[in-house]
Write a structure and sequence with these properties.
Blueprint lengths: L11 H23 L6 H31 L9 H31 L4 E3 L4 E3 L8 H34 L9
Antiparallel strand pairs: 1-2
Helix pairs in contact: 1-2, 2-3, 3-4
This protein binds protoporphyrin IX containing FE (2 copies).
Length: 176
């Protein structure tokens, strides 16, 4: 039992950030999977959705991290130390992911010599200029990490469901 006065559950803003980011990440994955072949309207539309969803993830990640450092998190749910450790590692990886993945995407597009155009708003984002050497590395990293995180996110979601269904503790309920 901890002596700290940590709250029982995640705060309303923390819950909001968590689930909005989940939806936007699902949308980014969906969009890139169904975009279709080069030169089609479908590709243009779904690529625009991918850029929008990913850029919003990055923006929310900044606010989310500030809120997390300010408000903290509830005390650990009682359980095996090895599972607590695993949860910490996975949560840290997920925090890194919501910054790194969209940043890699933006840098990949920019080093290809294009601004990231946020369609409908006509907002152009250019963080760096063209770079023929960096571009393929950034692309490899973005595609590789994107595919690897299907597994990390899946593990994290399975753990949450496992807590709820098997351990029947409040892990999932306190994030809702
Ligand atoms: C959390 C946010 C993001 C996730 C989860 C994500 C995920 C992915 C995945 C999995 C792929 C590769 C699909 C494949 O070929 O196997 C991909 C491709 C791509 N992503 Fe993202 N992405 C995100 C954000 C962004 C952002 C913000 C941008 C740029 C503004 C971006 C630009 C691209 C582009 C241009 C491709 C296509 C690469 C190519 O095939 O030439 N992504 N993304
Ligand atoms: C799409 C990807 C997801 C990302 C990036 C993500 C990210 C995170 C992060 C960073 C935390 C730690 C929160 C903190 O302490 O500040 C967290 C906690 C949590 N997530 Fe996710 N998550 C995702 C998907 C999911 C899904 C699909 C579920 C449920 C099935 C879920 C359930 C939970 C729960 C229950 C917690 C609280 C764990 C605890 O109390 O220690 N997450 N998530």
């Amino acid at each position: 039992m901890s002596m700290s006065r940590a709250p029982e559950r995640y705060s309303k803003p923390a819950v909001f950030f968590h689930w909005v980011v989940v939806v936007l990440i699902a949308l980014a994955y969906l969009a890139i999977e169904i975009r279709g072949p080069k030169g089609t309207d479908s590709r243009t539309f779904w690529t625009a959705i991918h850029f929008w969803a990913g850029t919003l993830v990055l923006s929310l990640a900044v606010l989310r991290l500030v809120w997390r450092l300010w408000a903290g998190a509830p005390a650990d749910v009682p359980g095996a130390p090895v599972l607590k450790f695993l949860a910490r590692v996975v949560h840290l990886a997920l925090y890194v992911f919501i910054f790194a993945q969209p940043l890699l995407g933006i840098l990949m597009v920019n080093t290809g010599g294009h601004p990231v155009t946020l369609a409908w708003l006509n907002l152009n984002v250019t963080l760096v200029g063209a770079d023929a050497i960096a571009r393929p590395l950034l692309k490899t990293a973005h595609v590789w990490i994107g595919n690897a995180f299907y597994w990390v996110i899946g593990l994290h979601a399975l753990a949450a469901i496992g807590h709820h269904v098997i351990f029947q503790d409040k892990t999932l309920r306190r994030m809702i």
